[in-house]
Amino acid sequence: MWPRLNRDKLAQYGLSVQDVNRTIQTAFAGQVAGQVFEQERRFDLVVRLQQSYRQDIRNLRQLFIATPDGRQIPLEQVARVEVISGPSQIQRDDARRRIIVGFNVRGRDVESLVKQVQQRIEQRVKFAPGYYATYGGQFENLQSARDRLLVAVPVALLLIFLLLYATFNSISQSVMIFTAIPLSAIGGVLALWLRGMPFSISAGVGFIALFGVAVLNGIVLIGYFNQAQGGRHD
């Protein structure tokens, strides 16, 4: 509920938009007029209308605005006051307005749902010039985490292979241990499929831990073989 000011009427009475907004804010929200001291405590003295005069839209229409020549005119003479649907608040990001539409995802993965939403928006929604849609929340976190994993996982696998070669000084044994990584992933993928769970960042971290366990098992196995053969390397 907010008045739509008639600027022509305001000009006739010598009023400005700021004068009207300040009067409305003082009457309904309150305005600090001074301070009250009680011993060591200090309180703001707020001036506003009594509760009975700020109940509904009629009180707003009948709110008197003081003109520069000393007259008092009701707000409805210089504005159209009506109840309309609108945003509860205006948020900005990088000096641009934004509207947030939020929802929770249940029973399916976030990525496929966002792709379906993007497809529907492209087919059914035509944005005015300057408007566009972005996707945040869990999907944004998923994208950023995936970008980091695309860098971290290959680097970690390369370091694992280099450490294996430095430990056994044998390319064949390092490759043999390294083959445990893709083979261990088969069990992880099968477990996700049996549970009906989509791949997520948590699952990706679990796969990394699984790769580490598989490599450790391979190291123990190859180390035992080398020890049984007297430390002989191929």
Automatic annotation (TrEMBL):
Q: Keyword set for this entry?
A: Membrane, Transmembrane, Transmembrane helix
- What are the transmembrane regions? 149-168, 174-194, 201-225
Gene3D superfamilies from the UniProt entry: Multidrug efflux transporter AcrB pore domain, Multidrug efflux transporter AcrB TolC docking domain, DN and DC subdomains, Multidrug efflux transporter AcrB transmembrane domain
Which Pfam families did the record assign?
ACR_tran
Q: Which PANTHER family match?
A: CATION EFFLUX SYSTEM (ACRB_ACRD_ACRF FAMILY), PTHR32063
Q: What is this protein called?
A: Efflux RND transporter permease subunit
